[in-house]
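agent> fetching stored inputs for the IPE docking request
agent> found them:
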Amino acid sequence: MRRKEQIDPHKLPKHIAIIMDGNGRWAKSRGSERVFGHRNAITAVREAAEGCAEIGVEYLTLFAFSTENWRRPPTEVRALMTLLVETIGKEVKTLMDNGIRLRAIGNIEQLPARAQKRLAEAMETTKDNKRMTLTLALSYGARADMTQAIRDISKRIASGEISPDQIDEELVSQYLSTSYAPDPELLIRTSGEHRISNFLLWEIAYAEIFFMPKLWPDFRREDLHEAILNFQNRERRFGKISEQIQQ
Ligand code: IPE
Ligand code: IPE
Ligand code: MG
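agent> prediction call returned; pasting tokens
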């Protein structure tokens, strides 16, 4: 039986997050420049988005560019930004055909004006799509996001709107940029690296993590199915013991 048919539609993660890693190595292994890997990552993005939408995942969040990625050589950063502008423009049709709403998290105002404009247009065009929400994490860092939340909560305390006693986990979640989505239940990272790299630190508190050796440009929907099946075969205990879960 194909992997897709083995997936239990009643036990799907509502929200999947992916750290799309390995573009540079993919290109290098072919004797090409790193940028070649980024260009070849678009198919994988489409496969992940369409694959999630077609099986009924409601939220997909993709780590596309981190706050730390600004430290890369300027030529690579520039190429990534150009690719972003071109791709968003081209992919609006794919988003519309699949009923996907586009959103973005991160310090969007740090992106070049053209990228911001394309992004804003695509988000506006797709805003009424209901099948799935695709979030691009761009110039995103979880620590920056949590710092922003602390700043915003502090301002409301200073103005007397809320008291410190009202701060609970629910309130903190509401001040993060991901407040519109449930926490991801499944986090996938490609390229064999076993780290989080400052992605969604608060939100992944209880996510199941699936590391795969494949490099991101090689990712296809069968890989998504594999990760979901693996997720469905895990016992999520949330601190309890196995016998309590099986009742
Ligand atoms: C992920 O691939 C894409 C971005 C971080 C923008 P990398 O560019 O990190 O590729 P590797 O990890 O160097 O192979
Ligand atoms: C994480 O990948 C960020 C993205 C996938 C956008 P990196 O390649 O930047 O992570 P590190 O530096 O290897 O941890
Ligand atoms: Mg990398």
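agent> quick read of the result: The longest strand covers residues 132-140.
agent> awaiting further instructions
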